[in-house]
Fold this protein.
Amino acid sequence: MALTPAEVRHIATLARLALSDDEMSRLGTQLSAILDHFEVLKDIDTEGVPPTAQSLDLHNVQRPDVVTPSMSTADLELNAPRVEDGYLRVRAVLE
Amino acid sequence: MATIDLGRTAHEHAAALRAGEYSARALAEATLARVRAQDGDLNAYITFTDELALQQADAADAALRAGQGGPLTGIPVGVKDLIGTKGVRTTAASKMLGNFIPPYDATVAQRLNASGAVTIGKTNLDEFAMGSSTEHSAFGPTKNPWDLTRVPGGSSGGSAATVAARGVPIALGTDTGGSIRQPAALCGILGLKPTYGRVSRWGVVAFASSLDQVGPFARDAEDAAALLGAVAGHDPMDSTSAPLPVPDFTERFGRGLDGLRVGVPSDFFGEGLEDGVREALERSIDVLAANGAVINRDITLPTAQAGLTVYYIIAPSEASANLARYDGVKYGYSYLDGRNAEDEMSQTRGRGFGAEVKRRIMLGTYALSAGYYDAYYLKAQKVRTLIRREFDAALEQVDVILTPTSPNVAFRLNEKLDDPLAMYLNDLYTIPVNIAGNPGVSLPCGFSEGLPVGMQLIGRMFEESTLLGAARGFEGVTDWHRQAPPERG
Protein backbone atom coordinates (compact mmCIF):
# COMPACT_ATOMS: atom_id res chain seq x y z
CA MET A 1 0.00 0.00 0.00
CA ALA A 2 1.68 3.18 -1.19
CA LEU A 3 1.21 6.32 0.88
CA THR A 4 0.79 9.50 -1.14
CA PRO A 5 2.96 12.54 -0.32
CA ALA A 6 -0.21 14.28 0.91
CA GLU A 7 -0.90 11.43 3.34
CA VAL A 8 2.65 11.53 4.67
CA ARG A 9 2.34 15.29 5.18
CA HIS A 10 -1.00 14.81 6.97
CA ILE A 11 0.46 12.21 9.36
CA ALA A 12 3.44 14.48 10.08
CA THR A 13 1.03 17.30 10.91
CA LEU A 14 -0.99 15.05 13.24
CA ALA A 15 2.25 13.99 14.96
CA ARG A 16 3.54 17.58 15.16
CA LEU A 17 6.76 16.63 13.38
CA ALA A 18 8.47 19.22 11.18
CA LEU A 19 10.11 17.12 8.45
CA SER A 20 12.30 18.09 5.50
CA ASP A 21 11.23 17.19 1.97
CA ASP A 22 13.93 14.52 1.96
CA GLU A 23 12.61 13.00 5.15
CA MET A 24 9.04 13.08 3.81
CA SER A 25 9.95 11.19 0.66
CA ARG A 26 12.15 8.62 2.45
CA LEU A 27 9.48 8.02 5.09
CA GLY A 28 6.82 7.66 2.41
CA THR A 29 8.74 4.80 0.79
CA GLN A 30 9.70 3.11 4.07
CA LEU A 31 6.27 3.37 5.69
CA SER A 32 4.62 2.00 2.55
CA ALA A 33 6.90 -1.06 2.67
CA ILE A 34 6.11 -1.60 6.34
CA LEU A 35 2.37 -1.21 5.75
CA ASP A 36 2.56 -3.87 3.00
CA HIS A 37 4.02 -6.18 5.60
CA PHE A 38 1.00 -5.54 7.85
CA GLU A 39 -1.27 -7.23 5.29
CA VAL A 40 -0.42 -10.66 6.77
CA LEU A 41 -2.80 -9.92 9.65
CA LYS A 42 -5.74 -9.93 7.25
CA ASP A 43 -5.35 -13.70 6.84
CA ILE A 44 -5.71 -14.39 10.56
CA ASP A 45 -9.26 -15.18 11.67
CA THR A 46 -10.10 -13.06 14.72
CA GLU A 47 -13.89 -13.47 14.56
CA GLY A 48 -15.20 -13.32 18.15
CA VAL A 49 -11.70 -12.86 19.64
CA PRO A 50 -11.51 -10.12 22.28
CA PRO A 51 -8.61 -7.64 22.08
CA THR A 52 -5.74 -7.70 24.61
CA ALA A 53 -4.54 -4.28 25.75
CA GLN A 54 -1.96 -5.71 28.15
CA SER A 55 -1.18 -9.15 29.56
CA LEU A 56 -2.38 -8.89 33.15
CA ASP A 57 -5.90 -9.20 34.50
CA LEU A 58 -5.72 -5.82 36.20
CA HIS A 59 -8.52 -3.37 35.61
CA ASN A 60 -9.26 0.08 37.04
CA VAL A 61 -6.57 -0.11 39.69
CA GLN A 62 -7.34 2.41 42.42
CA ARG A 63 -5.62 3.74 45.50
CA PRO A 64 -7.06 5.33 48.66
CA ASP A 65 -7.85 9.02 48.17
CA VAL A 66 -5.11 10.24 50.47
CA VAL A 67 -2.94 13.26 49.78
CA THR A 68 0.77 12.41 49.59
CA PRO A 69 3.73 14.76 49.04
CA SER A 70 4.46 15.65 45.42
CA MET A 71 7.47 17.15 43.71
CA SER A 72 8.21 20.82 44.26
CA THR A 73 7.62 23.35 41.50
CA ALA A 74 11.18 24.60 41.97
CA ASP A 75 12.59 21.13 41.21
CA LEU A 76 10.39 20.75 38.15
CA GLU A 77 11.31 24.19 36.80
CA LEU A 78 14.99 23.25 36.62
CA ASN A 79 14.49 21.37 33.35
CA ALA A 80 12.08 23.84 31.75
CA PRO A 81 13.37 26.02 28.91
CA ARG A 82 11.22 29.11 29.68
CA VAL A 83 9.92 29.86 33.15
CA GLU A 84 8.30 33.00 34.52
CA ASP A 85 6.94 33.49 38.05
CA GLY A 86 6.50 29.78 38.62
CA TYR A 87 4.81 29.24 35.25
CA LEU A 88 6.00 27.55 32.08
CA ARG A 89 6.02 30.11 29.30
CA VAL A 90 4.90 29.24 25.76
CA ARG A 91 4.42 31.27 22.61
CA ALA A 92 0.94 32.57 21.85
CA VAL A 93 -1.39 29.79 20.73
CA LEU A 94 -3.87 32.19 19.13
CA GLU A 95 -2.51 35.02 17.02
CA MET B 1 46.40 -3.96 48.21
CA ALA B 2 46.38 -6.75 45.62
CA THR B 3 44.93 -6.03 42.19
CA ILE B 4 41.25 -6.84 42.01
CA ASP B 5 40.15 -9.48 39.50
CA LEU B 6 37.43 -7.60 37.66
CA GLY B 7 36.46 -10.71 35.74
CA ARG B 8 34.64 -11.92 38.82
CA THR B 9 30.89 -12.30 39.03
CA ALA B 10 28.84 -10.24 41.48
CA HIS B 11 28.53 -13.13 43.92
CA GLU B 12 32.30 -13.70 43.82
CA HIS B 13 32.88 -9.99 44.52
CA ALA B 14 30.27 -10.13 47.31
CA ALA B 15 32.16 -12.97 49.02
CA ALA B 16 35.48 -11.14 48.65
CA LEU B 17 34.01 -7.90 50.03
CA ARG B 18 32.62 -9.76 53.02
CA ALA B 19 35.97 -11.49 53.58
CA GLY B 20 37.66 -8.08 53.53
CA GLU B 21 39.88 -8.96 50.53
CA TYR B 22 39.18 -5.46 49.19
CA SER B 23 36.78 -2.63 49.92
CA ALA B 24 33.76 -1.56 47.91
CA ARG B 25 35.55 1.74 47.34
CA ALA B 26 38.61 0.02 45.89
CA LEU B 27 36.32 -2.09 43.70
CA ALA B 28 34.43 1.01 42.51
CA GLU B 29 37.66 2.87 41.72
CA ALA B 30 39.15 -0.07 39.82
CA THR B 31 35.88 -0.59 37.94
CA LEU B 32 35.58 3.08 36.96
CA ALA B 33 39.15 3.04 35.64
CA ARG B 34 38.52 -0.15 33.68
CA VAL B 35 35.21 0.84 32.07
CA ARG B 36 36.67 4.23 31.10
CA ALA B 37 39.68 2.58 29.48
CA GLN B 38 37.41 0.15 27.61
CA ASP B 39 35.01 2.82 26.49
CA GLY B 40 37.29 4.24 23.80
CA ASP B 41 36.67 0.96 21.99
CA LEU B 42 33.15 0.13 23.14
CA ASN B 43 31.27 3.42 23.74
CA ALA B 44 29.06 1.48 26.15
CA TYR B 45 28.39 4.47 28.43
CA ILE B 46 26.73 7.83 27.93
CA THR B 47 27.53 9.13 31.43
CA PHE B 48 29.95 7.93 34.10
CA THR B 49 28.72 8.54 37.64
CA ASP B 50 32.00 8.65 39.59
CA GLU B 51 30.78 10.87 42.39
CA LEU B 52 27.63 8.83 43.01
CA ALA B 53 29.58 5.57 42.73
CA LEU B 54 32.15 6.56 45.33
CA GLN B 55 29.45 7.81 47.71
CA GLN B 56 27.55 4.56 47.33
CA ALA B 57 30.75 2.53 47.73
CA ASP B 58 31.59 4.30 51.00
CA ALA B 59 28.07 3.63 52.26
CA ALA B 60 28.45 -0.02 51.22
CA ASP B 61 31.75 -0.30 53.09
CA ALA B 62 30.11 1.13 56.21
CA ALA B 63 27.25 -1.38 55.90
CA LEU B 64 29.67 -4.27 55.36
CA ARG B 65 31.76 -3.24 58.38
CA ALA B 66 28.56 -3.28 60.46
CA GLY B 67 27.83 -6.79 59.21
CA GLN B 68 24.85 -5.58 57.17
CA GLY B 69 23.97 -5.50 53.50
CA GLY B 70 22.81 -8.03 50.94
CA PRO B 71 24.12 -9.80 47.85
CA LEU B 72 24.50 -6.53 45.89
CA THR B 73 26.09 -4.38 48.59
CA GLY B 74 29.17 -2.80 47.06
CA ILE B 75 28.63 -4.45 43.65
CA PRO B 76 29.25 -2.22 40.59
CA VAL B 77 26.28 -1.97 38.24
CA GLY B 78 25.53 -0.28 34.91
CA VAL B 79 22.12 1.31 34.41
CA LYS B 80 20.55 1.75 31.00
CA ASP B 81 20.15 5.45 30.29
CA LEU B 82 16.41 5.00 29.82
CA ILE B 83 15.99 4.62 33.58
CA GLY B 84 15.47 7.91 35.39
CA THR B 85 18.11 8.71 38.02
CA LYS B 86 17.66 11.67 40.34
CA GLY B 87 20.26 14.35 39.76
CA VAL B 88 22.01 12.27 37.07
CA ARG B 89 21.44 13.15 33.42
CA THR B 90 19.06 10.67 31.77
CA THR B 91 19.10 11.01 27.99
CA ALA B 92 17.32 7.99 26.45
CA ALA B 93 20.21 8.41 23.97
CA SER B 94 18.23 11.23 22.38
CA LYS B 95 19.07 14.83 21.57
CA MET B 96 15.57 15.46 22.93
CA LEU B 97 16.71 14.61 26.48
CA GLY B 98 20.39 15.48 26.07
CA ASN B 99 20.37 17.78 29.12
CA PHE B 100 17.53 16.26 31.12
CA ILE B 101 18.24 15.86 34.85
CA PRO B 102 15.37 13.91 36.44
CA PRO B 103 13.99 15.37 39.69
CA TYR B 104 13.27 11.87 40.98
CA ASP B 105 14.56 8.29 40.85
CA ALA B 106 12.71 5.57 38.95
CA THR B 107 11.41 2.90 41.32
CA VAL B 108 14.02 0.45 40.01
CA ALA B 109 16.75 3.03 40.66
CA GLN B 110 15.45 3.56 44.22
CA ARG B 111 15.46 -0.19 44.81
CA LEU B 112 18.89 -0.62 43.26
CA ASN B 113 20.25 2.10 45.56
CA ALA B 114 18.57 0.48 48.57
CA SER B 115 20.24 -2.84 47.68
CA GLY B 116 23.65 -1.22 48.25
CA ALA B 117 24.72 -1.57 44.60
CA VAL B 118 27.22 0.96 43.23
CA THR B 119 26.09 2.74 40.06
CA ILE B 120 29.08 3.11 37.74
CA GLY B 121 27.32 4.85 34.87
CA LYS B 122 24.42 5.20 32.50
CA THR B 123 24.70 2.90 29.51
CA ASN B 124 24.15 3.55 25.83
CA LEU B 125 21.07 2.44 23.90
CA ASP B 126 19.12 2.98 20.72
CA GLU B 127 17.28 6.29 21.02
CA PHE B 128 14.21 5.80 23.24
CA ALA B 129 15.01 2.06 23.13
CA MET B 130 13.89 1.87 19.49
CA GLY B 131 16.31 -0.38 17.67
CA SER B 132 18.16 -3.67 17.64
CA SER B 133 21.76 -2.51 17.23
CA THR B 134 22.44 0.52 19.49
CA GLU B 135 23.35 2.38 16.29
CA HIS B 136 20.35 4.68 16.70
CA SER B 137 21.98 6.59 19.55
CA ALA B 138 22.54 10.34 19.52
CA PHE B 139 25.78 9.53 21.40
CA GLY B 140 27.26 7.23 18.74
CA PRO B 141 27.02 3.44 18.38
CA THR B 142 28.20 0.92 20.95
CA LYS B 143 30.57 -1.77 19.60
CA ASN B 144 30.46 -5.49 20.25
CA PRO B 145 33.39 -6.52 22.52
CA TRP B 146 33.81 -9.75 20.52
CA ASP B 147 34.38 -7.84 17.28
CA LEU B 148 34.55 -4.04 17.23
CA THR B 149 33.30 -3.91 13.64
CA ARG B 150 29.99 -5.42 14.76
CA VAL B 151 26.97 -4.23 16.70
CA PRO B 152 26.25 -5.43 20.25
CA GLY B 153 22.54 -5.75 19.48
CA GLY B 154 20.01 -3.46 21.04
CA SER B 155 18.43 -1.55 22.29
CA SER B 156 20.25 -2.20 25.61
CA GLY B 157 23.58 -2.61 23.78
CA GLY B 158 25.64 -0.56 26.24
CA SER B 159 24.59 -2.67 29.23
CA ALA B 160 25.22 -5.91 27.31
CA ALA B 161 28.64 -4.80 26.01
CA THR B 162 29.98 -3.64 29.37
CA VAL B 163 28.88 -6.84 31.14
CA ALA B 164 30.30 -9.03 28.36
CA ALA B 165 33.60 -7.09 28.44
CA ARG B 166 33.88 -7.70 32.20
CA GLY B 167 33.51 -3.99 32.84
CA VAL B 168 30.73 -4.45 35.40
CA PRO B 169 29.37 -7.83 36.54
CA ILE B 170 25.71 -6.82 36.25
CA ALA B 171 23.58 -4.17 34.55
CA LEU B 172 19.97 -3.18 34.09
CA GLY B 173 18.31 -3.02 30.69
CA THR B 174 14.80 -2.71 29.35
CA ASP B 175 13.04 -5.03 26.92
CA THR B 176 10.05 -4.04 24.78
CA GLY B 177 10.57 -6.49 21.90
CA GLY B 178 13.87 -8.17 22.73
CA SER B 179 16.03 -5.27 23.89
CA ILE B 180 17.55 -7.27 26.77
CA ARG B 181 17.59 -10.78 25.30
CA GLN B 182 18.89 -10.00 21.79
CA PRO B 183 21.94 -7.95 22.91
CA ALA B 184 22.62 -10.57 25.62
CA ALA B 185 22.69 -13.19 22.84
CA LEU B 186 24.89 -11.12 20.52
CA CYS B 187 27.34 -10.36 23.36
CA GLY B 188 27.41 -13.87 24.90
CA ILE B 189 25.87 -13.18 28.32
CA LEU B 190 22.61 -13.83 30.18
CA GLY B 191 19.71 -11.40 29.82
CA LEU B 192 16.25 -11.79 31.29
CA LYS B 193 12.98 -10.09 30.44
CA PRO B 194 10.70 -10.55 33.44
CA THR B 195 6.97 -11.18 33.15
CA TYR B 196 5.06 -8.02 32.24
CA GLY B 197 4.17 -6.45 35.58
CA ARG B 198 6.95 -8.09 37.62
CA VAL B 199 9.06 -4.93 37.70
CA SER B 200 7.83 -1.35 38.08
CA ARG B 201 8.05 0.92 35.04
CA TRP B 202 7.63 4.12 37.06
CA GLY B 203 10.34 6.59 36.19
CA VAL B 204 11.52 4.62 33.17
CA VAL B 205 11.24 6.66 29.96
CA ALA B 206 8.16 5.14 28.32
CA PHE B 207 8.34 3.53 24.88
CA ALA B 208 5.43 1.05 24.54
CA SER B 209 3.72 0.84 27.90
CA SER B 210 1.96 -2.51 27.44
CA LEU B 211 5.26 -4.19 26.47
CA ASP B 212 8.13 -2.45 28.34
CA GLN B 213 9.88 -4.32 31.18
CA VAL B 214 13.09 -3.68 33.10
CA GLY B 215 15.38 -6.67 33.63
CA PRO B 216 18.89 -7.86 34.45
CA PHE B 217 22.04 -8.59 32.45
CA ALA B 218 24.54 -10.88 34.18
CA ARG B 219 27.14 -13.52 33.43
CA ASP B 220 25.37 -16.25 35.36
CA ALA B 221 21.95 -17.16 36.73
CA GLU B 222 22.92 -16.46 40.33
CA ASP B 223 23.78 -12.83 39.60
CA ALA B 224 20.67 -12.38 37.45
CA ALA B 225 18.52 -13.74 40.30
CA ALA B 226 20.09 -11.31 42.75
CA LEU B 227 19.61 -8.26 40.51
CA LEU B 228 16.04 -9.23 39.57
CA GLY B 229 15.26 -9.86 43.23
CA ALA B 230 16.52 -6.39 44.12
CA VAL B 231 14.30 -4.49 41.66
CA ALA B 232 11.17 -6.69 41.34
CA GLY B 233 7.87 -6.31 43.12
CA HIS B 234 4.64 -4.38 43.25
CA ASP B 235 4.79 -0.59 43.09
CA PRO B 236 1.75 1.56 43.83
CA MET B 237 3.17 4.13 41.38
CA ASP B 238 2.78 1.71 38.45
CA SER B 239 -0.80 0.49 38.12
CA THR B 240 0.34 -2.30 35.77
CA SER B 241 2.79 -3.72 38.29
CA ALA B 242 1.51 -7.03 39.64
CA PRO B 243 0.45 -7.14 43.30
CA LEU B 244 2.29 -10.42 43.86
CA PRO B 245 4.98 -11.41 46.35
CA VAL B 246 8.55 -11.62 44.99
CA PRO B 247 9.93 -15.14 45.30
CA ASP B 248 13.54 -16.09 45.93
CA PHE B 249 14.57 -16.35 42.27
CA THR B 250 17.16 -19.01 43.18
CA GLU B 251 14.43 -21.33 44.53
CA ARG B 252 14.86 -23.79 41.65
CA PHE B 253 18.65 -23.84 41.58
CA GLY B 254 18.86 -27.25 43.22
CA ARG B 255 16.70 -29.05 40.69
CA GLY B 256 19.08 -29.42 37.76
CA LEU B 257 17.83 -30.37 34.33
CA ASP B 258 16.46 -33.81 35.19
CA GLY B 259 12.82 -34.05 34.19
CA LEU B 260 12.66 -30.47 32.86
CA ARG B 261 10.09 -30.50 30.04
CA VAL B 262 11.47 -28.45 27.15
CA GLY B 263 9.29 -27.59 24.17
CA VAL B 264 11.03 -26.93 20.86
CA PRO B 265 8.56 -25.34 18.40
CA SER B 266 9.49 -25.89 14.75
CA ASP B 267 7.82 -22.55 13.98
CA PHE B 268 10.87 -20.82 15.50
CA PHE B 269 13.47 -22.74 13.50
CA GLY B 270 12.34 -21.86 9.99
CA GLU B 271 13.40 -19.58 7.18
CA GLY B 272 15.90 -16.84 8.00
CA LEU B 273 17.69 -18.72 10.78
CA GLU B 274 21.45 -18.86 10.17
CA ASP B 275 22.87 -22.39 9.91
CA GLY B 276 25.53 -21.74 12.54
CA VAL B 277 22.90 -20.53 15.00
CA ARG B 278 20.70 -23.55 14.29
CA GLU B 279 23.62 -25.93 14.83
CA ALA B 280 24.57 -24.34 18.16
CA LEU B 281 20.95 -24.62 19.29
CA GLU B 282 20.67 -28.28 18.22
CA ARG B 283 23.88 -29.15 20.07
CA SER B 284 22.50 -27.43 23.18
CA ILE B 285 19.22 -29.34 22.90
CA ASP B 286 21.30 -32.55 22.82
CA VAL B 287 23.13 -31.39 25.97
CA LEU B 288 19.82 -30.74 27.72
CA ALA B 289 18.49 -34.16 26.68
CA ALA B 290 21.70 -35.91 27.77
CA ASN B 291 21.24 -34.36 31.21
CA GLY B 292 17.70 -35.55 31.74
CA ALA B 293 15.56 -32.86 30.11
CA VAL B 294 12.55 -34.18 28.21
CA ILE B 295 12.48 -32.65 24.74
CA ASN B 296 9.07 -32.17 23.14
CA ARG B 297 9.14 -31.18 19.46
CA ASP B 298 5.38 -31.41 19.01
CA ILE B 299 4.36 -28.05 20.48
CA THR B 300 3.44 -25.39 17.93
CA LEU B 301 2.99 -21.64 18.05
CA PRO B 302 1.73 -20.90 14.52
CA THR B 303 0.34 -17.42 15.21
CA ALA B 304 3.51 -16.31 17.02
CA GLN B 305 4.97 -15.77 13.54
CA ALA B 306 2.61 -12.81 13.20
CA GLY B 307 3.99 -11.39 16.45
CA LEU B 308 6.45 -9.21 14.56
CA THR B 309 3.64 -7.58 12.61
CA VAL B 310 1.47 -7.18 15.70
CA TYR B 311 4.42 -5.56 17.44
CA TYR B 312 5.09 -3.05 14.68
CA ILE B 313 1.50 -1.87 15.01
CA ILE B 314 1.15 -1.90 18.80
CA ALA B 315 4.60 -0.59 19.80
CA PRO B 316 4.70 2.43 17.45
CA SER B 317 1.08 3.26 18.31
CA GLU B 318 1.83 3.35 22.01
CA ALA B 319 5.12 5.16 21.31
CA SER B 320 3.39 7.87 19.27
CA ALA B 321 1.14 8.55 22.27
CA ASN B 322 3.93 8.32 24.87
CA LEU B 323 6.29 10.56 22.92
CA ALA B 324 3.63 13.26 22.50
CA ARG B 325 4.89 14.61 25.83
CA TYR B 326 8.09 15.92 24.21
CA ASP B 327 6.77 19.32 23.27
CA GLY B 328 9.69 21.57 24.20
CA VAL B 329 7.68 23.22 26.98
CA LYS B 330 8.24 21.26 30.19
CA TYR B 331 11.73 19.78 29.78
CA GLY B 332 14.14 18.54 27.19
CA TYR B 333 15.31 20.05 23.93
CA SER B 334 13.38 23.13 22.88
CA TYR B 335 13.39 25.07 19.63
CA LEU B 336 12.64 28.65 20.63
CA ASP B 337 12.67 30.47 17.28
CA GLY B 338 9.45 29.21 15.72
CA ARG B 339 6.70 31.30 14.15
CA ASN B 340 4.18 30.37 16.85
CA ALA B 341 3.47 27.78 19.54
CA GLU B 342 2.59 24.99 17.14
CA ASP B 343 5.55 25.64 14.87
CA GLU B 344 7.90 25.60 17.87
CA MET B 345 6.48 22.28 18.97
CA SER B 346 6.82 20.73 15.51
CA GLN B 347 10.33 22.12 15.05
CA THR B 348 11.33 20.89 18.52
CA ARG B 349 10.14 17.39 17.66
CA GLY B 350 11.50 17.43 14.10
CA ARG B 351 14.95 18.49 15.32
CA GLY B 352 15.02 16.64 18.65
CA PHE B 353 14.11 13.13 17.48
CA GLY B 354 16.33 10.87 15.37
CA ALA B 355 15.30 9.06 12.19
CA GLU B 356 14.12 5.77 13.71
CA VAL B 357 12.05 7.52 16.39
CA LYS B 358 10.38 9.71 13.77
CA ARG B 359 9.68 6.63 11.65
CA ARG B 360 7.91 4.95 14.54
CA ILE B 361 5.97 8.04 15.59
CA MET B 362 4.75 8.35 11.99
CA LEU B 363 3.84 4.67 11.82
CA GLY B 364 1.96 4.79 15.12
CA THR B 365 0.18 8.02 14.30
CA TYR B 366 -0.97 6.49 11.03
CA ALA B 367 -2.13 3.23 12.68
CA LEU B 368 -4.18 5.16 15.24
CA SER B 369 -5.55 7.77 12.84
CA ALA B 370 -9.18 8.05 11.83
CA GLY B 371 -10.29 5.21 9.57
CA TYR B 372 -7.32 2.92 10.31
CA TYR B 373 -7.71 2.17 14.03
CA ASP B 374 -9.91 -0.94 13.50
CA ALA B 375 -7.86 -2.32 10.62
CA TYR B 376 -4.53 -1.98 12.40
CA TYR B 377 -4.52 -1.38 16.15
CA LEU B 378 -7.70 -3.26 17.09
CA LYS B 379 -6.88 -6.14 14.74
CA ALA B 380 -3.36 -6.36 16.22
CA GLN B 381 -4.78 -6.50 19.74
CA LYS B 382 -7.06 -9.39 18.74
CA VAL B 383 -4.17 -11.32 17.22
CA ARG B 384 -2.32 -10.56 20.45
CA THR B 385 -5.01 -12.53 22.29
CA LEU B 386 -4.47 -15.50 19.97
CA ILE B 387 -0.71 -15.41 20.57
CA ARG B 388 -1.22 -15.32 24.35
CA ARG B 389 -3.53 -18.33 24.13
CA GLU B 390 -0.94 -20.27 22.10
CA PHE B 391 1.77 -19.65 24.68
CA ASP B 392 -0.59 -20.63 27.51
CA ALA B 393 -1.56 -23.85 25.73
CA ALA B 394 2.05 -24.78 24.90
CA LEU B 395 3.19 -24.09 28.45
CA GLU B 396 0.58 -26.53 29.78
CA GLN B 397 2.51 -29.28 28.02
CA VAL B 398 6.05 -28.14 28.81
CA ASP B 399 7.88 -26.19 31.53
CA VAL B 400 9.85 -23.99 29.15
CA ILE B 401 9.84 -23.25 25.42
CA LEU B 402 13.27 -23.20 23.77
CA THR B 403 14.00 -21.08 20.69
CA PRO B 404 16.91 -19.16 19.19
CA THR B 405 17.12 -15.67 20.70
CA SER B 406 18.14 -14.06 17.42
CA PRO B 407 18.12 -15.53 13.90
CA ASN B 408 21.72 -14.38 13.42
CA VAL B 409 24.97 -13.61 15.21
CA ALA B 410 26.12 -10.00 15.64
CA PHE B 411 25.99 -8.20 12.30
CA ARG B 412 28.28 -5.47 11.02
CA LEU B 413 27.84 -1.80 11.86
CA ASN B 414 25.78 -0.02 9.17
CA GLU B 415 24.74 -3.34 7.63
CA LYS B 416 21.02 -2.90 8.40
CA LEU B 417 20.84 0.75 9.33
CA ASP B 418 19.03 1.86 6.18
CA ASP B 419 16.74 -1.14 5.93
CA PRO B 420 14.18 -0.96 8.75
CA LEU B 421 12.47 -4.22 7.83
CA ALA B 422 15.75 -6.19 7.91
CA MET B 423 16.55 -4.59 11.28
CA TYR B 424 13.11 -5.45 12.65
CA LEU B 425 13.54 -9.14 11.67
CA ASN B 426 16.29 -9.42 14.29
CA ASP B 427 13.60 -9.58 16.95
CA LEU B 428 11.43 -12.19 15.23
CA TYR B 429 11.86 -14.70 18.07
CA THR B 430 11.86 -12.34 21.04
CA ILE B 431 8.92 -10.12 20.13
CA PRO B 432 6.14 -12.73 20.54
CA VAL B 433 7.17 -13.09 24.20
CA ASN B 434 6.53 -9.39 24.88
CA ILE B 435 3.24 -9.63 23.01
CA ALA B 436 2.17 -12.51 25.27
CA GLY B 437 3.69 -11.00 28.44
CA ASN B 438 5.61 -14.13 29.50
CA PRO B 439 9.12 -14.07 30.95
CA GLY B 440 12.05 -14.96 28.68
CA VAL B 441 15.75 -15.42 29.21
CA SER B 442 18.66 -15.61 26.75
CA LEU B 443 21.65 -17.77 27.66
CA PRO B 444 24.97 -18.14 25.85
CA CYS B 445 24.89 -21.57 24.17
CA GLY B 446 27.77 -21.67 21.68
CA PHE B 447 29.53 -19.83 18.88
CA SER B 448 29.09 -19.40 15.16
CA GLU B 449 31.76 -17.68 13.03
CA GLY B 450 33.56 -16.92 16.32
CA LEU B 451 30.58 -14.94 17.63
CA PRO B 452 28.26 -15.84 20.52
CA VAL B 453 24.90 -17.54 19.98
CA GLY B 454 21.99 -17.15 22.39
CA MET B 455 19.32 -19.66 23.40
CA GLN B 456 15.98 -18.27 24.51
CA LEU B 457 13.89 -20.01 27.18
CA ILE B 458 10.31 -18.82 27.64
CA GLY B 459 8.36 -19.61 30.81
CA ARG B 460 4.89 -19.38 32.30
CA MET B 461 3.66 -16.04 33.63
CA PHE B 462 5.61 -15.08 36.78
CA GLU B 463 7.81 -18.19 36.61
CA GLU B 464 11.16 -16.45 36.24
CA SER B 465 12.46 -18.93 38.83
CA THR B 466 11.88 -21.82 36.42
CA LEU B 467 13.89 -20.02 33.73
CA LEU B 468 16.74 -19.20 36.09
CA GLY B 469 16.69 -22.75 37.47
CA ALA B 470 17.03 -24.11 33.93
CA ALA B 471 19.77 -21.57 33.20
CA ARG B 472 21.62 -22.67 36.32
CA GLY B 473 21.25 -26.30 35.25
CA PHE B 474 22.65 -25.53 31.78
CA GLU B 475 25.58 -23.59 33.31
CA GLY B 476 26.35 -26.67 35.38
CA VAL B 477 27.02 -28.80 32.28
CA THR B 478 28.48 -26.21 29.86
CA ASP B 479 31.04 -23.42 30.05
CA TRP B 480 29.72 -21.01 27.42
CA HIS B 481 28.96 -18.48 30.18
CA ARG B 482 32.65 -18.44 31.13
CA GLN B 483 33.91 -17.43 27.66
CA ALA B 484 35.29 -13.90 27.61
CA PRO B 485 35.86 -11.62 24.60
CA PRO B 486 39.35 -10.22 23.87
CA GLU B 487 40.59 -7.59 26.35
CA ARG B 488 39.72 -4.03 25.29
CA GLY B 489 41.21 -0.67 26.22
